[in-house]
Amino acid sequence: MVSVERYLEAYRAFATNGASGAPAWLKELRDGSIAHFAQLGFPNTKQEAWRFTSVAAITETAFEPAHPVSRIPHLDSIQPLLLGDGPRLVFVNGFLVRSLSTPVSDGVRVDGLAQALVDTPDLIRQHLGKYAGFQDRPFAALNTAFACDGAFVHVPERRALEQPIQLLFLATPGEGGPVVAHPRNLIVVEREARATVVETYAGLSEGVYWTNAVTEVVAGDGARADCYRVQRESERAYHVAVTEAHQGRDSRVNLHAVAVGGVLTRHDLRGTLAGPGGYLILNGLYLLAGRQHADHHTTIDHAAPHCESHEYFNGVLDGRSRGVFNGRIIVRPGAQKTDSKQTNNNLLLSTEAHADSQPQLEIHADDVKCTHGSTVGPLDARAVFYLRSRGMGEVEARRLLTYGFAAEILGRMEIAPLRAQLDRIVRDRLGER
Amino acid sequence: MLEVKNLHVAVNGAEILRGVDLTVQTGEVHAIMGPNGSGKSTLAQVLAGHPAYTVTAGSAAYDGKDLLGLKPEERAREGVFLAFQYPVEVRGITNSYFLRSAVNAIRKHRGQEELDPLDFLQVLEQKLRAIGWDDTLMNRPVNEGFSGGEKKRNEILQLAVIEPRLAILDETDSGLDIDALKTVAHAVNKLRAPHRAFVIVTHYQRLLNHITPDVVHVLSEGRIVKSGGPELAHELEAKGYDWLRAGATVS
């Protein structure tokens, strides 16, 4: 496997150069990760979890590791991607750019992971790589091996962060060939604290690049974390990501994920309800056209009793696009009184668009409520007639019904400027038709 | 206002309407009654332009214009409204957004300025006051998770806001308990006007206890077999439909 060897070689160069000053524990974590990656290799479609998604396009491209770039984009050029003047970290090709970032109020730590490894290594050590397992995830293993920068958000006990923090990951053209960035994010919301974080991934380059991101979210007992994720990479980008949330007792986590960009997307989301009384919402939308392919694999792990989870994923697929949804719900032995609901609705706007929807329930407790439902199909002809009978033209009726499919998901988001931003993206997409 | 002549309609090759004649004048309320399968709902849907039905013969004129040649949205913009027997759920779109889209599509057609959300809210409040209802349904997605009664109420709410000139109610009374029935009937009575006609399709007479029609028609096996005044509804309630079946003539 030439391709795997390529990354092993890049790792050896990284280990002796950029990563040589890392503390022993981190070196160990990285070494272990690359060893895992070497063992696993890239996934193929013979593996169940990758049945519908081929990553051949990624393995066949000669990606170079991204480096900090000298040309920093202008603030004006990224303005449309920002959520007002709130606190933010801006990364270019995976590396923090301080000149584009704005600070956060005191008491809360929001910084680049590279800096945090210097300032608060013990805190990072306590959490990094503890949740996003890479035993069976080659891309997470690769990310962990190369992890050197990304966002670190730490909200101490009982501290509530009022404003949303935006983490903006930009890809710009490299000087040489296509590059891969491995942003690594760690969001720790301690006991009874609260934070809202918005991750945005966007391309400033029309060329081929690859983002391989991992975000770990830790919500302590009684904490609340609202995590939004917007993937609006440029047209030829590859985007692979893992979002992993770990929840304590009586905590609440809302994970929102919107994917509109990239030619190939694979996003694994996992929430583990580790303490009783936890509440989790997974709210996702994929809006695809052309030859875009997006695969969302979600896992909700009810590891404790009396937890509740709600999952809503809608897909709107046009052109020759393909959407894959796999929703796994695990109810561990003893996780009684689990209440879990999952829905995945896919709207096919063209006869060549395709969606695969697979619920997967693994229930090992007897006193639980678990429901799931999924739909794949074109717009409901009855609904089209209903709207036309109210005076709307056929094109308008179809547009409104399609918009509703997306709006249902966006309506659950609580940040008005973000909702408006996404609403515009949806309307632009529908207007193009 | 509405003149239906010898209307024949088929769906999937089966003939459902076999020569319906119906004349409705402005300001009138007509009730179309009949047993299940008589073609009542088909008549309602055909007048609104449902694409599943094929008109095989006959005509329908609305204000002297050929109604059947118009698309469903054109009929709506000209003032035809169908209250659905089974209102459709529209995910992600609130009732208020939906209604504003409908009202604006009609206003645009008439060359009137479209209403922004604030203007619309004022219009809406005024319309709700007129029928004595509150706005509890307005910010929920259209018909999603609505009870049967709420769905039917929502149809009448749309009627009140859209202000059609010809309102066709397709079994609006089915699935309503007595309180909901009274609420709906009360609103319909408020909406009766000299410039507006109603065609009320119903299986039972009970809605007509609260809305007094000008004319009652009995539809059976795809034809109107009897027409009369409000007393005909009571007669049907007492005697059922059987006496009007095969062999009966139009009175």
Write structural notes for this entry.
The complex is a heterodimer of chains A (433) and B (251). With 433 residues, chain A is of the alpha/beta class. Chain A has one domain. Chain A is 24% helix and 37% strand. Chain A has helices at 2-16, 24-40, 56-59, 75-78, 113-119, 121-127, 138-146, 381-388, 394-410, 416-432; strands at 64-65, 88-92, 95-96, 109-112, 151-155, 165-171, 179-181, 184-189, 194-203, 210-219, 224-232, 238-247, 252-259, 264-273, 279-288, 293-302, 308-317, 322-331, 339-348, 354-363, 369-377. In chain A, the strands form two sheets. In chain A, strands 1, 4, 5, 7, 8, 10, 12, 14, 16, 18 and 20 form an eleven-stranded mixed β-sheet that branches. In chain A, strands 3-2-6-9-11-13-15-17-19-21 form a ten-stranded mixed β-sheet, with helices on one face. In chain A, helix 8 (381-388) packs across helix 9. Chain B has 251 residues and is α/β, with parallel strands linked by helices. Chain B has one domain (2-244): Rossmann fold. Helices cover 33% and strands 25% of the residues of chain B. Chain B contains seven helices and ten strands. Chain B has helices spanning 40-48, 72-77, 95-109, 117-131, 148-162, 178-191, 231-239, and strands at residues 2-11, 14-24, 29-33, 54-62, 65-66, 80-83, 166-170, 197-202, 215-220, 223-228. Chain B has a six-stranded mixed β-sheet with strand order 6-7-8-3-9-10, with helices on both faces. In chain B, helix 5 (148-162) runs parallel beside helix 6. Chain B is globular. The relative contact order of chain B is 0.18. The mean pLDDT of chain B is 92. Chains A and B meet through helix 8 and helix 9 of A and helix 2 and helix 3 of B.
Summarize the entry for a quick read.
By secondary structure, chain A is of the alpha/beta class. Helices cover 24% and strands 37% of the residues of chain A.
Question: Could you list some keywords that capture this structure?
Answer:
heterodimer, A: 433 residues, alpha/beta, eleven-stranded mixed sheet, ten-stranded mixed sheet, 10 helices, 24% helix, 37% strand, globular, B: 251 residues, Rossmann fold, six-stranded mixed sheet, four-stranded antiparallel sheet
